[in-house]
Write a structure and sequence with these properties.
The structure holds two protein chains of two kinds. Chain A is mainly beta. Chain A is built from no helices and eleven strands. Classes of the chains: A mainly beta, B mainly beta.
């Protein structure tokens, strides 16, 4: 069983479209995250959720919105996609908010044309 | 704010030899945690090793060890007996006050070092 799974793995879309990436973890962890990895491999946190409450919200455009129906799921919705949104988006989870031992999904490569 | 610096964009090592990947950090926190992650070409991120700022001994996990020098604010990763499967990007990361319950945690990553193991 995959511990942290995210879908789709690849996503190609046009500028201006709206898209979602889904993430599920079966580890029973309390905290989930979304990270963005740019073309230079730099990883930056976007959001984290702890027990369905947003606890970190970095300065990302409000076109990005995390949605967590329950503590096992943290989906990422992106409105009005722009070229600069092209990146690999990683979902991750951790036991709680105090640990840096993260379990990552395989990443979702988003390409905006 | 925390900052992680990895000065080696790329490194080469001969198979079966040891290699050290450098990581320095900057923080005003008294308590923090340091991590190394591996990202193979397949793209997934894999946790390797953790060092707490108050841990007196350097962390080890199999062939991985963390050379922690608190006064110099460095947390270098040492991989012994390199294998071809070690070829990957390696990221150093830190988190402030891991067990203080202060809330608002953020794992900050360095820009990574690409390690290539030569047969």
């Amino acid at each position: 069983d995959t511990a942290v799974s995210q879908t789709p793995k690849y996503l190609v879309t046009q500028m201006g479209n709206d898209k979602s990436i889904k993430c599920e973890q079966n580890l029973g962890h309390d905290t989930m995250y979304w990270y963005k990895q740019d073309s230079k491999k730099f990883l930056k946190i976007m959001f984290s959720y702890n027990n369905k409450e947003l606890i970190i919200n970095e300065t990302v455009p409000n076109r990005f919105s995390p949605k967590s129906p329950d503590k096992a799921h943290l989906n990422l919705h992106i409105n009005s996609l722009e070229l600069g949104d092209s990146a690999v988006y990683f979902c991750a989870s951790s036991q709680d908010e105090g640990t840096g031992e993260l379990f990552f999904g395989e990443g979702s490569r988003l390409t905006v044309l | 704010a925390q900052k992680i610096t990895q000065t080696q964009p790329g490194m080469f090592v001969q198979e079966k030899e040891a290699v050290t990947l450098d990581c320095t950090y900057d923080t005003s926190d008294q308590s923090y945690g340091l991590f190394w992650y591996k990202q193979p070409s397949s793209g997934e991120m894999i946790f390797l090793i953790y060092q707490g700022s108050y841990d007196e001994q350097n962390a080890t996990e199999g062939r991985y060890s963390l050379n922690f020098q608190k006064a110099r604010k460095s947390a270098n990763l040492v991989i012994s007996a390199s294998q071809l499967g070690d070829s990957a990007m390696y990221f150093c990361a830190m988190i402030p006050a891991p067990y203080s319950g202060a809330g608002s945690y953020q794992l900050t990553f360095g820009k990574g070092t690409k390690l290539s193991v030569i047969p």
